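Thread: Newbie trying to understand structure tokens

Hi all, I'm a second-year student working on a class project, and my supervisor (Dr. K.) asked me to get a predicted structure for one chain before our next meeting. I've only ever worked with sequences, so writing a 3D structure as a token string is new to me. If someone could post the tokens and maybe explain what I'm looking at, I'd be very grateful. Here's the chain:
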Amino acid sequence: MSSGFRRDLKVLVFTSDVEIAAKVESHLHSLGYQATVIALENCAKFDQIVEDLLRREAFDGVAIGGRINQRHPQAQLDDETFHWFNRLVNIIHECASKSKIILNKDLADLEPAIKRVFV
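---
Reply by user tm_fold:
Sure, no problem. This is what the structure looks like when written as tokens:
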């Protein structure tokens, strides 16, 4: 890893677990990141929230959590979640094309995932 890695990156993190969202945001802030963490549901209302936020604010990176990207060890592998993940990637691509997309498995993998993308 580069010793000059920037921890002041502005990152947006999507999780499907409302109970973990505050923990993730607190964890990232403690590491020096400018983090916004949002617990999403698989519906058009949340797609619109994501789109509006990405059009309003610029982020260095956007992380999609493991239960959504289906990399979490306890993720449900189903077509509905896979299609949701695909929709999110396309919303990010359309609304925040300069943001890097970060895929992580779980909270323990989040900072390593950010480093994988930005180092």
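A couple of things are worth pointing out once you decode it. The longest strand covers residues 10-15. The mean pLDDT is 93. Feel free to ask follow-ups in this thread.
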